[in-house]
Amino acid sequence: MSDLFESNEILKKLPKHLKQFIKPQNYEDYSAINQAVWRYVMRKNVDFLSKVAHKSYLDGLKQTGISIDHIPNMYGMNRILKDIGWAAVAVDGFIPPNAFMEFQAYNVLVIASDIRQLEHIEYTPAPDIIHEGAGHAPIIANPEYAEYLRRFGEIGCKAISSAKDYELYEAVRHLSIIKEAPNSSEKDIASAEEKVDHLQKNMGEPSEMALIRNLHWWTVEYGLIGSLENPKIYGAGLLSSIGESAWCMTDAVKKLPYNINATYKDFDITKPQPQLYVTPNFAHLSLILEEFANTMALRKGGLQGVQKLINSNALGTIELSTGIQISGVFTQVIQREGQPSYIQTTGPTALAYREKELVGHGISTHNKGFGSPIGKLKGINLAIEDMSPRDLAAYNIYEEKVVTLEFEGGIQVSGEIITGKRNLQGKIILISFKNCTVSYNDTILFKPEWGIYDMAVGKAIVSAFSGPADLISFDLITHKTSSNTIHIKKTKTQLALETLYQQVRDYREGTNTTISRTKVLEQLIENHPNDWLLAVELYELAYLGSETELCDKILKHLETVKQNKPELGHLIDNGLEIVNQKQLS
Question: Residue 131 annotated as binding?
Answer without folding.
Answer: yes
